[in-house]
Design a protein that fits this description.
heterodimer; A: mainly beta; six-stranded mixed β-sheet; four-stranded antiparallel β-sheet; B: about 110 residues; seven-stranded mixed β-sheet; about 0% helix; globular
């Protein structure tokens, strides 16, 4: 079965330190990969995506993500965390096989950035 | 105005009642989706529609139905609400290529008592 795993329920980081939120996937072929962020009482907001090309993609709010095909991973990173980055982060994968290419979401990782 | 608008934002209903959640969009997208979010489970797909005449079940469609009234409108109904349908519900849209990801509404928090 196709799936997306975010192995950490919560990541704690001190402000100013680098952060990594992990994502691995089990999907056949070469899917499209996405990261979304959810702030309290809000919908999901698009952060960045990998479609093709350079394995390091840059997105909103200083976030970037690194695609690793051999490890089927798409980890979210930021060089210097801000308290305002505290939110719930979702990794999502859009398989390209099967006709209807729907997004499959991970369970989410809560990022807590401490002053 | 938001690109994807969901109404109501919050709703409390009783077990056994029928309830409809509405979604409208100004993105001009053909594809629309309904998800539910539960803590620790991420977002799970309930139904999706790739155009007005194309509606499909997602992974958790039991107990739900949908109606695609127009390209811009996609409503979700709970025919007889039960407490384990208490969740946060999101409507989303996407373009046909899939490369742009989904655009989400702000969600409807539904509580079934």
């Amino acid at each position: 079965a196709q799936s997306v795993a975010q192995p950490e329920d919560q990541v704690n980081v001190a402000e100013g330190n680098p952060l990594t939120v992990k994502c691995t996937y089990s999907v056949s072929g070469n899917p499209y990969l996405f990261w979304y962020v959810q702030y309290p009482n809000r919908g999901l907001q698009f952060l960045l995506k990998y479609i093709t090309g350079d394995n390091l993609v840059k997105g909103s709010y200083g976030f970037e993500a690194e695609f690793n095909k051999s490890q089927t991973s798409f980890h979210l990173k930021k060089p210097s965390a801000l308290v305002s980055d505290s939110a719930l982060y979702f990794c999502a994968v859009r398989p390209l096989a099967g006709g209807y290419n729907k997004l499959i979401f991970g369970a989410g990782t809560r990022l807590a950035v401490h002053p | 105005d938001a690109d994807v608008t969901q109404t109501p934002r919050n709703r409390i209903t009783k077990t056994g009642k029928r309830i409809m959640l509405e979604c409208s969009q100004t993105k001009g997208h053909d594809r629309m989706y309904w998800y539910r979010q539960d803590p620790g489970l991420g977002l799970r797909l309930i139904y999706y529609s790739f155009d007005v005449k194309d509606i499909n079940k997602g992974e958790i469609s039991d107990g739900y139905s949908v109606s695609r009234q127009a390209q811009a409108k996609f409503s979700l109904s709970l025919e007889s609400a039960i407490p384990n349908q208490t969740a946060l519900y999101f409507c989303a849209t996407s373009g046909t290529s899939g490369t742009g990801g989904n655009t989400f509404g702000s969600g409807t928090r539904l509580t079934v008592v």
